[in-house]
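Input record (one chain):
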Amino acid sequence: MRAAQPDQTARSAGLRAVRPVLWTAFAALAAGAVLCVIGWYGISGERFAERQLPYLASCTVPGAALIIAGAVLLTHGRSTLATARVEELYELLVAAGTAPATTERPAPVATSGDLLMIPGGTLWHRADCPLVAGKPEAVPADAHILATGDLSPCPICEPQATPLTPSPER
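The corresponding structure, as predicted from the sequence alone:
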């Protein structure tokens, strides 16, 4: 059974809905900056505070409000854009479906028959395991320690347990 292909127009509808919000945000930021510059210019030309108030009230305060509104719209638009992109990626993943399960095991990471361990460690490894390969502190695995079960086989290289019988002490 094939999964239905997602509709291209439905996927891009969310992205198209975000663009007007972003353009509005940029317009509000630009208009706010222009009003703040005009207000600053008008205030800087007046010596007395009572003559500066009209510039402050008509340009600087509305300009600052537009800058804040533009920043809020920009934040909202970007989060909406990110949400739309995540939803689009999710739809693509669902449309792709799951890969058929294979019964084959992956190729082994290590194939050496020699067993190594790190003193004080909790795992035993094959000699060519990436976790111990090239480490000078790795020593050959002790048959007595392997027989007691103090060490577990490495989950990466999956060394096969060889039947080890401890030799009697002489």
